[in-house]
Structure formats: structure tokens, C-alpha cells
Amino acid sequence: MSDTLSSTELWDKVSFALYQDLGAISFDTFVDPLTPVGIENNRFIFKVPETFADKIINQWNTEISMKFVEYANNETGKFIRPEFQKTESLASAASPVTTGLTSESEQHIPFSQDAGLNPDYTFEKFVVGSGNENARAIAQAVAEGPGKVYNPYLIYGGVGLGKTHLMQAIGNQYAQDNPNARIKYATAEDFLNDFTNSLRKGGDTNATALFKKTYRSLDMLLVDDIQFWAGKPQVQEEFFNTFNALTKANKQIVMTSDRYPNDIPDLQDRLKSRFEQGITSDIQKPDVQTRVAILRNLQDQNDLDIPNDVLQLIGESVDDNVRTLEGAFHKFEAKIRYMNKPATIETAKTILEEINANKKSVITVDRIQKVVADYYMQTVEDMKSSRRQSDIVMARHVAIYLTRTMTDMSLPQIGQAFGDRDHSSISHAFTKIEEQVEKEGQMKAMVQDLAEAIRNGQ
């Protein structure tokens, strides 16, 4: 507690507490239009625009004043009550401010129009298959009833499987149904950059307040690739606060990750706990039927006529992820559109050769170690060392399991590749992961994603 705060400093702290408590709409309507004047005899004087004065003062008398007194007392240890002075001069000046009481013609451009959403990412263009149907069903429910049941919603899975598409489809659907909704899509890196930029401005409290208001006044926040925050405690702390502010106001949060939250190293336990309050779903690699359906969808979107056997060949040959599949399709499209090649099996085989879809590369222990180390954000040297830190041990065991299942190396050879370990240690590591893969769906999915990345040389 402090009795040395200036009226400006006190109002900064109390107004932020009110913002978190009331939510964006009530704050913009009943608090933002006020102009703080100063403190006089334990009364905090505010000027209030005469146009809206009665409605604002009535709301303060019935709900907000007691909150103000509580928050001011927490900061100063004193009983400070609010007092209002009507002012005509502010009535006209307040018109540029979004108060929630302005006429329809004075309202700002809907936030969702600048939400960072790709308009092509819609539910209609998302091809449903056995590997994503559950995630798609939950996403539709979130779009139709945000903040009610599945909050937060986290979609996880390997690279290029459609996580971003599905997440943005939620935002686009909600924006279409609610044109004035405040929606924001950001990558985890965007959030980090916005946060650090606000901190760089040092004493500029407006920069920090603007950052917090931007993210905490939303109706829906979409964050891509949260695994990017691994080992970054300061941004995790800020997102924790943002998360609490939004969910407390029943606002929807949707996130994506390349792995299940508990598998993200150095992610705070309290964040993992918050994520578990909602629902998670994974997206698996599409089967052949789904891949061919995706190709047919692309064909229709691009007004092409491609024989079914050609689509079938491409779908069977490109089996890693949707992004690579789309790349193969557009390469084929370029051949027939701009190089006047026929839409035939022969042309398809040509582009498949060009992208090496029919060539299986040699899998080495070096590649396995590199892919697994990157996934767990460790180093190959650590995996080969004698260190027993839990995340290093897990990475080491998974790499040993994949080496045993994806190469012809013997146990002694694998032991030598992992820091001259004896064959019994290698056998133990393999058996441990094998049992987890059989019993735990998340472990099985993670190992499959790693194996896919290893085969594709990623």
C-alpha cells in the first residue's frame, strides 16, 4: 500500500483493475468517458460528459463506486470515494471516443475487419477426414457459441495439417455472424513482439496500457504456435494474465501448437492447468481418401478438369501433410496451365519426380537425433551426454525408439551412437517408449509426427 501515489498514478492502477473487472464493453461505456481531475479531501473528482452523465453516474452508484473504493483502498490504504462534475465542454469532445453510447453512424470500424484473418480459411474450404473430423466438429461448436463450453480450445498436430486453417475458420465464422465483434489472430511470436515493444518504451505507461487493452478487450483471441513461448517466462506471465482476463469475461481463446501442452518444455504449470480447463483435439495426417478429396476441392476452386486417376496418383504419392500436397497440386496446375502439358498420369509422374515424392531418402541416426532434439528444444550433444534432466531423458529415449524402429541398427550400434551406452540401457529406453506408444494416444501421435518429419528430411 502507498499514500504517495499521485492522482494520475492512482487512476492508472484503479482504472486498469476496473477494466479487468468490468470487461471491455462496460469499461468503454461507463469508465472511459470520464476525465480525472484530482483528489480533494478523500474525494476523487471526475468530469463526466453531460450528454451521458445521468446514465454513467447511475451505473457508478449501483455497481462501480464500491469497486472503485475497494481498489483505491488496496493501493493507498485510504477510503477515497468518487465524485462527479457534469461538464458541457466534454460532451462534444467525447464524440471521437467509443463510449458504447454513440449512435450507429459514429461507431468505429469493426475490429474484426482488421483481425489478421485470411478470408480463404473457412469451414467450407476445410476438407474433413478421419484425422481431423473431431477437431472440425469442436471448432464449429466454438464458432457458434464462443466462450460458453469449449474455452479455451487448443488444436495440436504436426506441420502443415490444417491447424491454422481450422482456427481461422472459427474466427471468420464468428466475424460473419457478429460483424462488430473484436477478433484478433496473432502468432505466438506476434504476441511476444507486441509485448516486448510495449516494454521497450520504458516509462511510456500508455504503450503498456494500449498493449493490454488491445489483447484484453477482445471477444475472441486466436494464437498460433504457442510452443514458441517455451523457455520464455516473461511472455508466459503476460499471456497468463491476458488469458485470465478474457476467460473471466467469458471471451473465447483458441490456440494451436505442434504438440500437446504437457509436452512443451519449460511451459509454466499454471498455464498447462489453464489450458486443461478447456478442450484439446489433435489433427492427424490425412489418409488417402482425404488427400484425394483435398485435391478435388483444389480442382474445383481453380476451375480445372483433372481425371480421377491423376488425382488418385498424386494423393497416394504425397502422404506427408496438406501443405506439401497443395504444393504438388499447384506445381501440376502450373504444368497444364502455363506449359500446355496434358492433365495426364505422365505429367503427374513428372511433377512427383521433381518434388521427390516417389523417392525414399535414407534415414540415418544423425537425422533422427537432429529432428528429435529440435522438437524437444535440446541439443544432440545433450542427448548423447550423461545428463539426467527429465526433458533430455525423454528426448533421448524417443530418439532411441525411433532409431530402433526406423533403421536396421543393432542395440550395440545404437548405444554407440548415443554416447557409448550399453545395450541394456538402449533396450530399456526402447521398451519404455514402446509401452507409452501402445497405451497413450498423445505419445503415439507425437512419435508418428516425428517419424513423418524424419522421413521427409524436415
TrEMBL record:
Residues 1-91 are annotated as: Domain I, interacts with DnaA modulators. Residues 149-284 form the AAA+ ATPase domain. Gene3D superfamilies: 1.10.1750.10, 1.10.8.60, 3.30.300.180, P-loop containing nucleotide triphosphate hydrolases. Keywords: ATP-binding, Cytoplasm, DNA replication, DNA-binding, Lipid-binding, Nucleotide-binding. Signal peptide: none annotated. CDD domains: AAA, Bac_DnaA_C. Residues 364-433 form the Chromosomal replication initiator DnaA C-terminal domain. ATP binds at residues 160, 162-164. Transmembrane segments: none annotated. Residues 337-458 are annotated as: Domain IV, binds dsDNA. PROSITE patterns: DNAA (PS01008). SUPFAM superfamilies: P-loop containing nucleoside triphosphate hydrolases, TrpR-like. GO terms for cellular component: cytoplasm; plasma membrane. Its main location: cytoplasm. It is found in: Cytoplasm. GO terms for biological process: DNA replication initiation; regulation of DNA replication. One of its GO terms (molecular function) is DNA replication origin binding. HAMAP family: DnaA_bact (MF_00377). PANTHER family: CHROMOSOMAL REPLICATION INITIATOR PROTEIN DNAA. Oligomerizes as a right-handed, spiral filament on DNA at oriC. Domain I is involved in oligomerization and binding regulators, domain II is flexibile and of varying length in different bacteria, domain III forms the AAA+ region, while domain IV binds dsDNA. NCBIfam families: DnaA. Belongs to the DnaA family. Plays an essential role in the initiation and regulation of chromosomal replication. ATP-DnaA binds to the origin of replication (oriC) to initiate formation of the DNA replication initiation complex once per cell cycle. Binds the DnaA box (a 9 base pair repeat at the origin) and separates the double-stranded (ds)DNA. Forms a right-handed helical filament on oriC DNA; dsDNA binds to the exterior of the filament while single-stranded (ss)DNA is stabiized in the filament's interior. This is Chromosomal replication initiator protein DnaA. It comes from Fructobacillus durionis. The lineage of its organism: Bacteria, Bacillati, Bacillota, Bacilli, Lactobacillales.
